[in-house]
Structures are given as C-alpha cells and as structure tokens.
Design a protein that fits this description.
The chain is α/β, with parallel strands linked by helices. It contains eight helices and seven strands. A seven-stranded parallel beta sheet has the order 3-2-1-4-5-6-7, with helices on both faces.
Length: 248
C-alpha cells in the first residue's frame, strides 16, 4: 500500500535509538523528509547519515525536550529548513520511576512540544501528530507506577487534543506499544540479566514472543499518513494480544 507520504515533512523526538529510530527509518522509507533529535549529537549525526544514505532530505539536532525554549527553537528551525511540518511523533519518555522526572518529561515536555508544533501542523494539508504511549498506561503495573500514570494522563490528553484540533485540520492519535525487544532496551537487558523472568514474559504473550520496533513503527506510519485521513482520537494498542480487556 502506498501511504501517500512522499515529500511530507516529519519530526520525530527521541529518534536515534529503539522505537523512535525505527519510526524515523520507516517514515523515511515511505518518502518523508525526517527531522530527528535526541540529547546525543553523535547519535543524531549517525542517524542523519543513515537516513540520508537512501535519499531524501533529512536533518537533525541534539536537543533536550525538557528545555521548552530550545525545543521550540528546534521545531521552528526544522520547519524553516524543510519548508513546513506535516507530521509530528512525540516519542520521548523518561522511562523513570522518579515522579518528578516522569512529570517533567512525559507530561510537561510533551505538552510543550505539542504546543510548539501545532501551529506548523495547522498549515499542512496533512497535519498529523502521533503520541507514543504504552500499555502501562492502561493496566495496573505496580513496579511502574509513575511511568504508567503519566502515560495514562497523556493518552487522555491526546484524545482531548484531537477534539480541539479536528476542525483545524490536524489529526491526533496515540499508539501504545506492549513489550518491545531491541538492542539496549529494557527487555534486552532483562533477557541478559534475568533470563527466568524474561522466559515468563515470553510465555504470557499469546504470540509467544515480544514485539519489534518495526511493528510499532508501521502502525505509527499508517496513522500519520494521509491513508488514515478519517482516523483521529484513536488509541491503538500494539502488544500481540497481551492485554485482554476492551480498550475504550
């Protein structure tokens, strides 16, 4: 399926590793020009080189999303250099159980980031924002209380934001990954350091495996694309059937 994304301009946060990197790569493969960012200038440079090897016009910058002024400046710079923004993927998470870190990064920085990018998306004929949530925001996970709480809060916020922006030509959706395995990620470390628990995690998933960043990225790309033009305010779970309740 041609997603109709060729020539669209996308900005993805936290896009030099894991799910974020896969999202950037998938959007680039679909023909988007991609702006990437993370706190590491070295990783940003490597990602821009990797994306550019297959063509397209890709840019990047080292920026901390919790610095609202710096991130807004990057959004404006990216929009200027690329000739506008059509797609925004809010992927950064503190992945922290420190409540202050979780609130600052997952709530305050995410809201500030949306505020920065919305004026640009409103100028696009295909304005779309996708928030990367988590199944931890829809099920009780005692070891991840802070993380789950902020993900639940922001998923709710994205629904409200979608209602505010639907008449302004901007779609807003959320994707909630389940247990995703990639090099250097939490489940990669668990597989190495606690193989018995990792085996239990595999067993509890109906598919008998964990997901890949590419599987999450494919859903993000579809929701961000003009092919999903009638989809807004959705919350799509990508977890291999791990959660069994009906999602509202």
């Amino acid at each position: 399926m041609d997603l109709g994304m060729k020539g669209l301009n996308a900005l993805v946060t936290g896009s030099t590793a894991g799910i974020g990197a896969s999202i950037a790569e998938t959007l680039a493969a679909e023909g988007c020009n991609v702006a990437v960012c993370s706190r590491s200038s070295e990783r940003v440079e490597r990602m821009v080189e990797k994306l550019s090897a297959d063509g397209g016009s890709h840019i990047g910058k080292a920026v901390d999303v919790t610095d609202a002024e710096a991130f807004r400046a990057w959004v404006d710079e990216a929009a200027s250099r690329m000739g506008g923004l059509d797609i925004y993927v809010a992927n950064v998470s503190a992945l922290s159980q420190d409540w202050q870190d979780a609130v600052n990064t997952d709530i305050l920085a995410t809201v500030a980031g949306m505020d920065a990018v919305i004026p640009h998306l409103q100028k696009s004929e295909h304005g779309s924002a996708v928030y990367i949530s988590s199944i931890a925001g829809i099920v009780g996970v005692p070891p991840l209380a802070a993380y789950g709480a902020v993900k639940a809060a922001m998923t709710h916020y994205m629904k409200t934001l979608s209602m505010k922006l639907v008449k302004k030509g901007v779609r807003v959706n959320a994707v909630a990954p389940g247990d995703i395995l990639f090099d250097g990620g939490i489940w990669d470390r668990t597989r190495r350091d606690n193989p018995e628990f990792f085996a239990k995690v595999l067993k509890r998933n109906p598919l008998g495996r964990l997901g890949t960043p590419e599987e999450v990225a494919s859903m993000v790309a579809f929701l961000a694309s003009p092919r999903a033009s009638f989809v807004t305010g959705s919350h799509v779970v990508v977890d291999g059937g791990n959660t069994t309740h009906v999602h509202f």
